[in-house]
């Protein structure tokens, strides 16, 4: 139930391993995509309405642009520990930590 399978011949060695699709995998893809969407949205959200932010907070546009630049600047040094964590602890721990930090950043 909830799974589809596919078998492709593998030349001399017989049939290839069966690939199965589970509903749980689609749920995980949805959760990961939702996290990525919220992360990307927060990255550029103030750049979209920079004219309103400039008037409301009485700052220059350069300051508003730096909010999105901080994401790119911090990406470079933090990709290395994130890659190490992904390799050592796996996708589940890394995704949960990333979501928690994304939540804290949003609240801040």
Automatic annotation (TrEMBL):
GO CC aspect terms: plasma membrane
Lineage per the UniProt record: Eukaryota, Metazoa, Chordata, Craniata, Vertebrata
Membrane topology according to the record: Multi-pass membrane protein
Species this chain originates from: Hippocampus comes
GO molecular function: heme binding; heme transmembrane transporter activity
Keywords of this entry: Cell membrane, Membrane, Transmembrane, Transmembrane helix, Transport
GO biological-process terms attached to the record: heme export
Transmembrane portions of the chain: 26-46, 66-86
The organism's place on the tree of life at top rank: Eukaryota
Name of the featured protein: Major facilitator superfamily (MFS) profile domain-containing protein
Record InterPro entries: FLVCR1-2_SLC49-like, MFS_trans_sf
Compartments in which it is found: Cell membrane
């Amino acid at each position: 139930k909830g799974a589809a399978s596919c078998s492709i011949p593998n030349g001399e060695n017989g049939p290839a391993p069966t690939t199965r699709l589970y509903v749980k995998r689609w749920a995980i893809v949805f959760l990961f995509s939702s996290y990525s969407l919220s992360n990307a949205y927060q990255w550029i959200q103030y750049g979209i309405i920079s004219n309103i932010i400039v008037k409301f907070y009485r700052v220059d546009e350069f300051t508003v642009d730096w909010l999105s630049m901080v994401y790119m600047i911090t990406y470079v040094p933090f990709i290395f520990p994130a890659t190490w964590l992904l390799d050592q602890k796996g996708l589940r721990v890394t995704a949960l930590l990333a979501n928690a930090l994304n939540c804290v950043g949003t609240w801040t």
